[in-house]
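Just scan this pair:

***
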Amino acid sequence: MRPAFLLLFALMMCFTSAALACRYNASPSERIYKAKARIDTLVVGVVDNARYLTSAAEPERAWSATVRVQKVIRGKTFSANFEISRTGQSSMCDDGVKLPSVGDKWALYIRHTNGGESVELAYPVAIAADIDPLFQTTPHIR
């Protein structure tokens, strides 16, 4: 009985980890298109600080950055700063966008939640402006 249980457990763990893996890594244009139906606000901000969260020895490096809002393109925001991040892991559908530099401009797609706001999606303005028609009305943002 015990070997059958161990085999069943091992198979279950294999299927569970496979279910957590990224099945399809969408392009930035697909991500922006899908996120636009869920977002309440689009802002452009500047990166005030950025840091890696994992060591240089890691092949896929997670990072986090603080973005200060400079301009609201659509909607309204109650926050002046937002945290953005990437896991660095393609198996978790990370899009591979590299650590930003201080001063870089980013587009933040924000969703209003119960009592707060959260960044649904974030891309450098150079990427978002080429994809999202909302930037056509504000071409000086780039």
User: Anything to note?
Assistant: The chain has one domain: 24-141. The radius of gyration is 19 Å. The chain is about 25% helix and 35% strand. The longest helix spans residues 2-20.
